[in-house]
Amino acid sequence: MINITLVSQRLELIDFWLTNLKKLSCLSYEEFTSSNLNSAAAESYLRRSLEAVFDIGRHILAKTGNIEMAGEYKSIAQGLAGNNFVSNALGKKLVQMAGYRNRMVHFYSMVTEKELYDILLDNLGDIEQFTVEIKKTVLGHYQ
């Protein structure tokens, strides 16, 4: 059985981190790069958000009998879409997010301020969409 409390708590954390990421997205590029604390905060909040997204996905898949899909991040993304917990369009974006999460964790020295800033401007809506779809398909259905 899906642990609704766990899912809800992770979604609240994602919302908190997204709030902080959105504040950073309001900075100009010059302001963002004026302090390395900005990029460090962006990287931390983004990585934590992605970890929470995939923790939620792993939990949902494992508790709905799809344990074989709950291992690797990309298979979690595919499993969520394939089992209609998220849309196919979001599932494709989650696969990209999984790849970026791996880049942040394993190739962290290659992550640039510019790419973090671009994600702040262009991709936070994808994480937000994940929270919307999970609230609808999981919290709305399993409560």
What can you see in these coordinates?
By secondary structure, this protein is mainly alpha-helical. It has a single domain, classed as Up-down Bundle (Four Helix Bundle (Hemerythrin (Met), subunit A)), CATH 1.20.120. Helix content is 79%, strand content 0%. It is built from 7 helices and no strands. The longest helix has 28 residues, at 36-63.
Topology diagram in text:
Blueprint: H1 4-25, H2 29-33, H3 36-63, H4 73-82, H5 88-106, H6 113-122, H7 124-142
Helix pairs in contact: 1-3, 1-7, 3-4, 3-5, 3-7, 4-5
Rg, nearest Å = 15 Å
Individual helix count: 7
CATH homologous superfamily grouping:
bsu32300-like
Please trace the helix and strand order, writing H or E for each element.
HHHHHHH
What is the global morphology?
elongated
The CATH topology annotation reads as Four Helix Bundle (Hemerythrin (Met), subunit A)
The strand count comes to 0
The share of residues in extended strands comes to under 5%
The main pleated sheet reads as: none
Number of self-contained structural domains: 1
What is the CATH architecture term?
Up-down Bundle
CATH class: Mainly Alpha
Which structural category do the helix and sheet elements fall into? Answer: mainly alpha
